[in-house]
Specification:
Layout: E1 2-7, H1 14-27, E2 32-36, H2 50-61, E3 67-69, H3 72-75, H4 82-93, E4 99-104, H5 105-108, E5 125-129, H6 141-148, E6 165-168, H7 177-185, H8 196-205
Parallel strand pairs: 1-2, 1-4, 2-3, 4-5, 5-6
Helix pairs in contact: 2-8
Bound molecules: adenosine-5'-triphosphate.
Residues 7-10, 15-16, 19, 103-104, 106-107, 131, 172-173, 175-178 line the site of adenosine-5'-triphosphate (ATP).
Length: 216
């Protein structure tokens, strides 16, 4: 079973990293693949370049064999669309291997605005992670999909290559990349919200308004 977890990771933080390990425990997979997106179609520009975000992810997961980074969306020219990524992975994995995409309810709520969203259940299973304060709107496509394609449990995802939706409610850390960027811009330390090597690199590169000579 191949599991991907996409996001802007601008920058990656302990909330992302913990969730990735919770997913790997829940689905009993050896690896979760983090997929940073190139130009987020639903957002404005990011605070760090694609290469810098990728490097920060590499630093964050260096000592964790259960986490991998897949930079395919950064290598693709232009915007990142989940459907394109899943199609490419499906071609690589073949028709029978279960493929799973992980998404938080905050991002999944706007599922009906994703490009070619209707094709996605034919390419992968979807694991929807409940985020506090981000319920799926009643009557939305996302809510309908959860209702109509609900998986019995994590194990049942292995019985088909795609098509099921599993809701998970793991313990989450209340950390956001927005909060980290804001802290740094305000001259406050984001230490312990993101791994130390990530913060060191952010400072060294002066990202998000960090002062290279500032306090740890
Ligand atoms: P931003 O604050 O810039 O919007 P973010 O911290 O929410 O960023 P993203 O890269 O936008 O991070 O999120 C990627 C994925 O990670 C999304 O599916 C989102 O739901 C999830 N996610 C983000 N923060 C957390 C967290 N603290 N715990 C669990 N999942 C998270």
């Amino acid at each position: 079973m191949h599991v991907i977890y996409g996001g802007t990771f601008d920058p990656i933080h302990h909330g992302h990293l913990r969730l990735a390990l919770e997913i790997s425990d829940a689905l009993k997979v050896a690896q979760v693949h983090l997929v940073p997106c190139h130009i987020p179609p639903h957002r404005g520009s990011t605070g760090a370049s694609p290469e810098q975000r990728l490097e920060l992810i590499r630093l964050a997961i260096k000592d964790e064999p259960g986490l991998r980074v897949d930079d395919r969306e950064l290598r693709r020219a232009g915007a990142s669309y989940t459907a394109d990524t899943l199609l490419q992975l499906r071609q690589e994995l073949g028709p029978d291997e279960p493929l799973v995409m992980v998404v938080g309810t905050d991002a999944f709520a706007a599922f009906h605005r994703w490009r070619e969203w209707a094709d996605i259940p034919d390419l992968a299973h979807i694991v929807v992670v409940k985020r506090p304060g981000a319920d799926l709107p009643v009557g939305s496509e996302a809510a309908r999909l959860v209702r109509e394609r609900r998986a019995d449990g994590a194990e049942s995802l292995r019985s088909a290559p795609c098509g099921m939706v599993l809701e998970l409610d793991p313990p989450l850390l209340d950390i956001s990349a927005t909060g980290i960027r804001q802290r740094i811009a305000d001259g406050r330390s984001p230490r312990y919200l993101t791994p130390d090597p990530v913060w060191q690199s952010i400072r060294a590169l002066g990202l998000y308004g960090a002062c290279p000579a500032g306090n740890f």
